[in-house]
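Sample 1 of the test manifest.
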Amino acid sequence: MRRLHTHQHLRQHLRHPLAKWTWVACSLVPFVYLCAGVWWDRLGPNPAEALIRASGDWTLRFLCITLLITPLRITTQWPEWLLFRRSLGLLTFFYACLHALCYSLLDMSWEWDEIAKDIVKRPFIAVGLACFVLLMALAATSFNAAVKAMGATRWRQLHRAVYAVAVLGILHFFWMRATKRNFAEVWLYASLLGALLGWRVYHFTKRSLWKVS
Amino acid sequence: MLIRTHQDGFIHPLSSEITSPEAYATRRQLLRQWTAGAAAAGLSAWGQREAFAQGTTAKLAALPANQSPVQGAMAVEKLTSQHDATTYNNFYEFGVDKSDPARKAHTLKTTPWSIEVEGLVKKPTRFNLEDIMKWGAMQERIYRLRCVEGWSMVIPWIGYSLSDLIRRVEPLPGAKYIEFITQADAQTMPGIRGGYLDWPYTEGLRMDEAMHPLTLLSFGMYGEVLPKQNGAPVRLVVPWKYGFKSGKSIVKIRFVEKQPVVSWEKAAPQEYGFYSNVNPKVDHPRWSQASERRIGEGGLLDKKRKTLMFNGYEAQVASLYAGMDLVKHF
């Protein structure tokens, strides 16, 4: 009985209109922290590199959190988790934008022809760009009217592209880290995202098998 | 009365409600203080880390030296701050993050230190560091340092030309290359267990490169002996090659006949060659080498600077590579 009670309590908290905005505010703390680092010159001897790397790291982290929503929703059977999915996706996109901005501005000084050359020459940049374009498409169709206009089925099909983003994102990170052969964090994120995608494969194949029989 | 009518006229605020001019003038400061308060928790930890790194680099023994008379040895450029040069290092024996060496290298034991000279020399011998330090007059040299990763610094090194040591140990005529073997002690170097490279880290030079007066055997920087994170107590500095060619904490110098396979060449032969001369026209397979970020220079939004052929030492060293295809021998 007590267990049920705490569950109800938690779900009520999740449903609270302020819950989402509190979460969004918390999610922007890394951004504020980086801004403070720039302001007080506390990002170390190479702040440009520090910003590019940190924004990439946070994109990956928010991608993991976003992809955690569906497993949470289904295993707990609380639809409340869905209230967070869109803002999480948009936060992932926000950090991806920051990452792309830092790269284009700090590393490439807004020189478009240089950026274009870089994309062609360096596959890991091309893969990063592909991720960014996909995330852009998802962010652009994230509002209610877009779902309505596209129809739920087609919208869902499009938004499955987030799985491609996960795989390409890991590839991008792997390639970047290959320089130093420093793969510890790559494996960490790969196994996290692998588990999140693996859970989906397992869950949905099991469900469809069950449906057939 | 919330809705004002013509009869109310203008309602002036009470004088106590008016923001004082002083407060108004300092409003931005106030904002800063608030944000400072919010960020204080995180930043204080950050500050401590910086302070710790500084603590490990300050107060080293002074190493007196005279300005170098060698041509090209005194770059007229703004020095990188000692703090940046001692907290932003690649020294994988202490970890792959560039802040690792400053935090972890304090465990390195630099006394006693000796260098074993072996291979094709008249008399292979192990020499004490104190003796080696007397083989040449200590010179200060201001060199540009270009890392293969695309950043650069300007550092005042102290040492003497490696050629002084080479002449002293009398190589045999068959010696065409020199291999430098660096310290690899799993007890004091946590990165050794990381398995990033095949330890010990080895580097190599062709004999004429090693004999070039700009090739420096360095014992200090910024007027002091080398900090541990910068390769104490003795390292190589080859200013026209990417930084990784300049081995740190050298324990063995081997004279050989055949071109040695050096660490990065062994790890990724398609990305790193034996020569690794700074060359803006030969890109690394995964990034451009045409420009570099000078650490500590300009603002965040400033453009990177163009990388110079042989890191700006073309006049001094280009003749070493006359007729060589530098794309093939990258």
